[in-house]
Amino acid sequence: MPVSYGKRAIVPRLAELVRRHPRLRLELSFSDRQVDLIREGLDAVVRIGTLADSRLVGRRIGEQAIVTCASPDYLRRQGIPHNPGELAGHDCMIFRMPSTGRVRPLQFRDGRRRIELAPPARLVLDDGEALVSAAIAGLGVAQVPDYMAEDALAAGRLTEVLARCRMPPTPISLVYASARRPTPRLRALIGLLASA
């Protein structure tokens, strides 16, 4: 499962699974690379995004929204961007995807139109939580998954900008092989995570 999402959203829910099934033994692996669950012999994986492999079945367990944010101090110094084009005049921090090594463009929507921007980056990081920390420290504007920034946003350490241009949320799914009949342990996990 993805590292940050797994720690924040999945692990806390496993206590209920273990309470319901006390003899169940779990082995979890956290990685931001996309694994081949069939080749690696895994019962299930957590995937963010749409599923492209027809050999897999996905049960939706949540969604991920991407928020654009900066610290209040940074916004006082540099001003609040009112549209995505204004980010060209800001210190932007960009995410490098560990799975591909490519930088992820900043993504927005204008009505039904999708906008992707690759402004000059002040900082490029391959860890979303590090981007959150850098944004809190006032280094610039970042786009991160909502669950990574929610505590800092609620505490006022970060402020969301360009909320009206936010892309629609992406599904988060528990994925398993379609050719296999779900084992009792997999059915228990599906039941727990799909009930949220």
What's the layout of helices and strands?
Elements: H1 3-20, E1 45-48, E2 56-64, E3 66-70, H2 72-78, E4 92-96, E5 103-104, E6 106-110, E7 113-117, E8 121-125, H3 128-136, E9 142-145, H4 146-155, E10 159-161, E11 170-177, H5 184-194
Parallel strand pairs: 4-8
Antiparallel strand pairs: 1-11, 2-11, 3-9, 3-10, 4-5, 6-7
Shape field: elongated
What's the multimeric state? single chain
Q: Helical amount among residues, as a percent range?
A: 25-40%
SSE string = HEEEHEEEEEHEHEEH
Portion of residues in beta strands equals: 25-35%
- The rounded distance between the terminal residues' Cα atoms is 17 Å
Q: From the alpha-carbon coordinates, what is the Rg to the nearest angstrom?
A: 19 Å
Strand order of the biggest β-sheet: 1-11-2
**Sheet with most strands:** 3 strands, antiparallel
Mean pLDDT: 91
Number of helices: 5
Write down how many β-strands occur, each being a DSSP E stretch of 2 or more residues. 11
Poorly predicted ranges (pLDDT <50, ≥5 residues)? none
The chain-level structural class is alpha+beta
Note the main attributes of this structure:
196 residues; alpha+beta; 3-stranded antiparallel sheet; 28% strand
Report what the structure shows:
This protein has helices spanning 3-20, 72-78, 128-136, 146-155, 184-194; strands at residues 45-48, 56-64, 66-70, 92-96, 103-104, 106-110, 113-117, 121-125, 142-145, 159-161, 170-177. The chain is α+β, with helices and mostly antiparallel strands. The strands form 4 sheets. A 3-stranded antiparallel beta sheet has the order 1-11-2. The chain has a 3-stranded antiparallel beta sheet with strand order 9-3-10. A 3-stranded mixed beta sheet has the order 5-4-8, covered by helices on one side. A hairpin with a 2-residue loop joins strand 6 and strand 7 (113-117). Helix 1 crosses helix 5. The radius of gyration is 19 Å and the shape is elongated.
